[in-house]
Amino acid sequence: MHTPALNFDPALLLKAQGVRVAFFDVDGVLTDGGLLFTESGETIKRFCTLDGHGLKMLQKAGITPAVITGRDSAPLRARLKALGITHVRYGTEDKAPAAQEILNELGLDWSQASHMGDDWPDMAVMTRTAIACAPSNAHIEVKAISHYVTEREGGHGAVREFCDLLLVASGRYAELLRGYVR
Fold first, then answer.
1. Phi-psi sector, 33: left (phi>0), alpha (psi -120 to 50), beta
2. Cα dist. 72→27, 69, 141, 151 in Å?
């Protein structure tokens, strides 16, 4: 039997233990923050497949991934649809009220929420949640208020790293991993 290789600080796992919803920003978190434009002005985004699998594993573990983003684009909508993420707020800079709406829809409160963000618009949500996370390339003020800063950068596996932490804290990581290691 395979033994999981991941280890997290026990105090950090305790903070994350009751998380039922995980909020994520997009630019700088699910992507590297770069914006590519076609000649016609369409935005192109690059998403990391490791992150996508982590978000799917959260759903299997009973943790709802939710996205709150200041932007909106067809590629983003297509990616979130492909991942089965239905709790989304597009085009919002004031993220705390959007997060509260999602919490109300799910019948949850801030103590059951986490948030991963990289810049100032994320801070109002991050300071309310049980556990806040930032990718390693986040703004310094965001990293300063985070309970956990990933080793990986946004758009390059940082979301997966945070998903893994939440999965370990939920007690479901080893069970999910066993489904892939035979």
1. left
2. 11, 7, 25, 28
